[in-house]
């Protein structure tokens, strides 16, 4: 059987299958569906310094081959997260990556600093790219200088691996990628959702309370592949792929394109056992094709 | 207690057309049939030809635990349900369940008063099954547009309920809204203590019942309908607004996980 372990800076995953922030709750929601210890890593729902109620309904809309969401990062805040959510995560034998967001750069730094005392956090993912919050949100990953500065400031308060989650809603994703690399990020994850809109003809109004939201699901996979490819070509740090991964074939396509790991997102809503199905599918493919080292497969696309 | 939620395949035993555009499917899945309670639902993957992305939630309508069968009831009005109504016997349906919370009834009840609008009748057959051995009066107010939309009445009678029908066109029972007939009924009751309203239906009807419950000071529980992507609290796409924020600042609960059943006075009902 192929050794599926991959390295992201100092972070070693037993396999490249993780779950995307905001699609897996704090993992407990999925414990009835499969053994969570099977997968490479769990990225938590976004945690912010202060609690957030989230956006007013309607928050989601079904679209062709995907969905729009405008959830608005509801969460209990970092203090309650530590008390209420970490105890379930701590005993798991998979990597725990806490996704952090903030309204200001200082918020990111303070939230990470607070989490530093907490055991069993293996890395942070910095959510620079939520399109659905009024303050902050996109600004962090739409401006290279700001993204670099925030990353540098967070870097000063932690030695744990930092993953910067990037938005595709910019002119040049690799420019932002290079900026966070300069700021000290150990990896980037891409893509977050694409800004989109759905209209209810009957009601003559947008389907989401915030008018626009973030598009996810199979509809965005080709965009994600292009952005991941661009990042792989231009950055020295590892790229983690997110975007419409529904099955093992999708995941393998991203690995072939050069992503060292993948995150299963919207698929979790449709098939709550998707991460395990995808992992098993990757294993089968490597066994069938007699690939002994995952590293020889990653990035081996012929262009 | 309810059973764990599972991802499973149920086998179609039988599909029947029970009213105009209304269908009932009997499904074989023993875990769901044996552990579900009134108010809970299953989230079903619609066969591929419908080309819908999300699963679709269906109330658990009734169960026959000894034979491993449970039932869902639906109106074939959307892209998903139009395909579902053509499902063949022994076909498999992939589903997640049982999901959500359940209705609950205080001790010392004298009467449950069910108020259902249209397809809102779905969860109440299971409720009457669950309460079969409890000595209390069971009254069902069932409102529909026209008598061709009525279903399940014989079964409700067999389960010990007295049914009061309202049709908007007057084709059967009370002519008008079910909420008007409900008010007439409540006004004539000597006292409203130890009685409970259990409500499911379209939002305008729910709002009216919310008003009525407040006016008459009667305990009421409502099952809300909401669009949802996952059905088990992960997507957070189905918020229900609280009438009063909780102590921890929480302004929303989730229809799928905290509901679908809520106390009528704890939530705001939106369009």
How would you characterize this protein structure?
The complex is a heterodimer of chains A (303) and B (271). The model of chain A has no long low-confidence stretch (mean pLDDT 95). Chain A has 303 residues and is α/β, with parallel strands linked by helices. Chain A has helices at 77-89, 105-115, 139-142, 144-157, 173-183, 221-234, 248-257, 267-270, 274-288, 294-297, and strands at residues 6-8, 11-13, 17-19, 41-43, 60-63, 66-69, 95-100, 123-127, 162-165, 187-190, 194-197, 199-200, 205-206, 212-216, 239-242, 261-264. In chain A, the strands form 4 sheets. An 8-stranded parallel barrel of chain A has the order 3-4-7-8-9-10-15-16, surrounded by 5 helices. In chain A, strands 5-6-14-11 form a 4-stranded antiparallel β-sheet, with no helix packed on it. In chain A, strands 1-2 form a two-stranded antiparallel sheet. The longest helix of chain B has 14 residues, at 203-216. Chain B is globular, with a radius of gyration of 18 Å. Chain B has helices at residues 30-35, 79-84, 124-130, 153-158, 178-188, 203-216; strands spanning 6-19, 22-28, 41-44, 56-59, 62-64, 69-75, 92-99, 111-117, 137-144, 162-167, 174-175, 195-200, 219-223, 239-241, 252-254, 261-263. Chain B has 271 residues and is of the alpha/beta class. The chains are: A alpha/beta (303), B alpha/beta (271). The interface between A and B is medium-sized, with 35 and 32 residues.
In short, what is this structure?
Chain A has 303 residues and is of the alpha/beta class. Chain A contains 10 helices and 16 strands.
Descriptive terms for the model:
heterodimer; A: 303 residues; alpha/beta; TIM Barrel; eight-stranded parallel beta barrel; four-stranded antiparallel beta sheet; 10 helices; globular; B: 271 residues; Elongation Factor Tu (Ef-tu), domain 3; Rossmann fold; seven-stranded antiparallel beta sheet; seven-stranded mixed beta sheet; 6 helices
């Amino acid at each position: 059987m192929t050794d599926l372990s991959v390295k992201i800076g100092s972070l070693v995953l037993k396999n490249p299958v993780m779950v995307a922030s905001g699609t897996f709750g704090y993992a407990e929601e999925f414990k009835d569906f499969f053994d969570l210890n099977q997968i490479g890593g769990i990225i938590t729902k976004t945690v912010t310094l202060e609690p957030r109620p989230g956006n007013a309904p309607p928050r989601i809309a079904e679209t062709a081959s995907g969905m729009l969401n405008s959830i608005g990062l509801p969460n209990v805040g970092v203090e309650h997260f530590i008390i209420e959510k970490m105890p379930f995560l701590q005993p798991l034998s998979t990597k725990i990556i806490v996704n952090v967001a903030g309204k200001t750069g200082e918020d990111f730094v303070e939230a990470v600093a607070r989490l530093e005392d907490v055991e069993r956090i293996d890395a942070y993912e910095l959510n620079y790219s939520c399109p659905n919050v009024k303050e902050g949100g996109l600004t962090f990953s739409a401006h290279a200088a700001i993204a670099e500065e925030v990353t540098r400031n967070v870097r000063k308060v932690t030695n744990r691996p930092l993953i910067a989650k990037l938005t595709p809603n910019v002119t040049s994703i690799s420019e932002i990628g290079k900026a966070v690399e300069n700021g000290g990020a150990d990896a980037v994850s891409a893509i977050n959702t694409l800004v989109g809109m759905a209209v209810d003809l009957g009601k003559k109004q947008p389907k989401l309370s915030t008018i626009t939201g973030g598009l996810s699901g199979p509809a965005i996979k080709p965009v994600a592949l292009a952005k991941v490819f661009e990042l792989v070509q231009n950055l020295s740090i590892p790229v983690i792929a997110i975007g419409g991964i529904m099955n093992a074939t999708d995941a393998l396509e991203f690995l072939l394109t050069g992503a060292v790991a993948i995150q299963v997102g919207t698929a979790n809503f449709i098939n709550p056992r998707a991460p395990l199905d995808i992992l098993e599918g990757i294993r089968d493919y490597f066994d069938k094709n007699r690939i002994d080292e995952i590293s020889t497969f990653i990035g081996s696309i012929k262009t | 207690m309810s059973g764990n939620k599972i991802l499973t395949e149920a086998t179609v035993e039988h599909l029947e057309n029970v009213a105009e555009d209304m269908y009932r499917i009997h499904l074989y899945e023993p875990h769901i049939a044996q552990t579900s309670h009134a108010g809970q639902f299953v989230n079903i993957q619609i066969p591929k030809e419908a080309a819908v992305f999300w699963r679709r939630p269906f109330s658990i309508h009734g169960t026959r635990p000894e034979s491993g069968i449970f039932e869902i009831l639906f109106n074939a009005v959307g892209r998903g349900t139009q395909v579902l109504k053509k499902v063949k016997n022994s076909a498999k349906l992939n589903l997640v369940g049982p999901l959500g919370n359940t209705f609950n009834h205080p001790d010392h009840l004298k009467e449950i008063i069910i108020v259902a609008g249209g397809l809102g009748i779905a969860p109440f057959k299971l409720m009457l099954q669950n309460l079969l051995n409890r000595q209390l009066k069971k009254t069902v107010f069932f409102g529909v547009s026209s008598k061709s939309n009525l279903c399940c009445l014989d079964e409700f009678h067999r389960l010990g309920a007295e049914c009061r029908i309202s049709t908007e066109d007057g084709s059967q029972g009370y002519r008008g809204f079910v909420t008007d007939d409900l008010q007439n009924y409540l006004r004539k009751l000597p006292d409203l203590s130890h009685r409970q309203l259990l409500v499911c239906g379209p939002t305008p009807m729910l709002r009216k019942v919310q008003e009525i419950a407040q006016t008459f000071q009667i305990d009421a529980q409502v099952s809300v309908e909401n669009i949802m992507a996952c059905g088990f609290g992960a997507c957070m796409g189905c918020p229900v607004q609280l009438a009063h924020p909780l102590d921890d600042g929480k302004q929303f609960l989730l229809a799928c996980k905290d509901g679908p059943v809520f106390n009528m006075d704890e939530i705001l009902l939106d369009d």
